[in-house]
Amino acid sequence: MLWTIAIILLILWAIGLAFKVAGAVIHLLLVLALIVVLYKFFMGRKAR
Questions:
Q1: How many angstroms separate the CA atoms of 10 and 26, rounded?
Q2: What are the structural domain ranges in the chain?
Q3: What is the spatial distance between Cα 9 and Cα 21, in angstroms, rounded to a whole number?
Q4: What is the pLDDT of residues 1-37, one digit of tens each?
Q5: C-alpha dihedral sign at 2, 5, 9, 14
């Protein structure tokens, strides 16, 4: 589930960058995607 959200956020970020839409929001999406990926990485590692 979190990987899906991260991928969607990265795709939206890439589209926004390509079309130069919503300046700061693009970077916010990238930061959110990175946070989700890092959270999933560390929580997955902790569970093992």
A1: 9
A2: 2-47
A3: 14
A4: 767 877 787 787 777 777 776 666 767 777 887 888 8
A5: positive
- Mention every residue, 6+ apart, whose C-beta is less than 8 A from residue 28: none
* pLDDT value at residue 36: 81
pTM over 0.85: no
Which residue type sits at 29? Answer: L
Q: Is 6 within 8 Å of 29 (Cβ atoms)?
A: no
Contact 31, 13 (CB under 8 A): no
Phi, then psi, of 43 in degrees rounded to 5: -70, -35
The pLDDT value given to residue 23 = 66
Q: Quote the CA–CA distance of 12 and 21 in Å, as a whole number.
A: 10
